[in-house]
Every structure is written in C-alpha cells, then in structure tokens.
Amino acid sequence: MSYEFVDQMMEKSKLGELRSPVSETLDMHLVEFGRGEAIYEMPAREELGNPLGVIQGAWPQRWPDARMAAATTTILTTRRSRRPRSPRLTSSPASSAP
Predict the structure, then answer these.
(1) In the prediction, which pLDDT does 97 show?
(2) Can you give the chain as a three-state secondary structure string?
(3) Of the CATH numbers 3.90.800.10, 3.40.50.720, 2.40.40.20, 3.10.129.10, which one belongs to the domain with range 3-92?
C-alpha cells in the first residue's frame, strides 16, 4: 500500500465520499489527517445517552478506535526498511464536549 493510495482514501473520507457504516451511524467525520495523525469530530447526541442523559460507553469507545485505525493507516507502507513513527490521536474541541 502506497502513501499516495492512503492519502487519496483519507481525502475521500474527509470529503464524505468514503464513509464506513460506523461513521455514518455515529455521524463521525474526518476533519484532518497527516502522516500518523487523524482528527475526527463526532457530535454528542441525546439518543446516544442513557435515561440519565449520560453518554453510553460504546459511543466514546468507537471514537478512539476509528482515530487510531485512520492514524495507523497513514503510516503503513509496503517498504519494510523504514520504521514509521507512532500515531498521534487528536480530538476536536467541538466534539469533546458531551
């Protein structure tokens, strides 16, 4: 897998042209990406909470999972001679509020 292919895939995801069922269901959007980085926004919605208004555990677990997968994908390469840097996860300020 080349960086060019991954960058094209990530750009399509950022533009909303390529979305997973999870990102569609949770209304999760890739905002920015770079080599080893992925920034997503995901709104907190009332229907994701329990009767007390607290966001259910599955909602916040999907978010870091998607970010880590996207960030890791940006550093994958078919060349084994380079050691990729560790991915960095970032949350958008607008999406970190419950």
Answers:
(1) 45
(2) CCHHHHHHHHHHHHCCCCCCHHHHHHCCEEEEEECCEEEEECCCCHHHECCCCCECCHHHHHHHHHHHHHHHHCCCCCCCCCCCCCCEEEECHHHCCC
(3) 3.10.129.10
